[in-house]
Amino acid sequence: MRIVVFDTETTSIEKPFAYNIGYVIYDTDTDEVLVRKDFVAEQIWHNRELFTTAYYEDKRDEYVKRMRARLCRMDKLGRITQEMLRDFKMYEVVCAFAYNSPFDDRVFTFNCEWFKIINPFDDIPIYDIRGYVHQYIAFTPDFQKFCDDNKCYTESGNYSTTAETLYK
Question: Strand, coil or helix: what is 45?
Fold first, then answer.
């Protein structure tokens, strides 16, 4: 089956304007990545006042480098969502996955309503990778040892289960 794994970066939690959207379309039968795309949303990027509220605002230079290297493309949010929808249809994507998917789902809902554009996930179920991590990885002795060895803890002292920690 073909799936999409996606992520968003936003300006804030309250009004999560998406300034970065990335996704990979993957074929689970052939173990092949079919599409890999990374976008910067023009409307948010050029609104300096809004962009400074972003959690990763300090990574702006990294985005510039990625765009110069043509690893990331800037476009209007409506064109990005249209391209996603075309890719999902062309590759017959049946479901989507995101780490902490309720947030990313809310990001798309918010942005698509705000900008009055089509939500590419309207007809695709979204599943939460973080839920699988908690169920199968986060409480294993190996993962806890990794967190102890690498000092991967939350501010309250629990084991960190962020996407960044899991990637490590």
Answer: helix
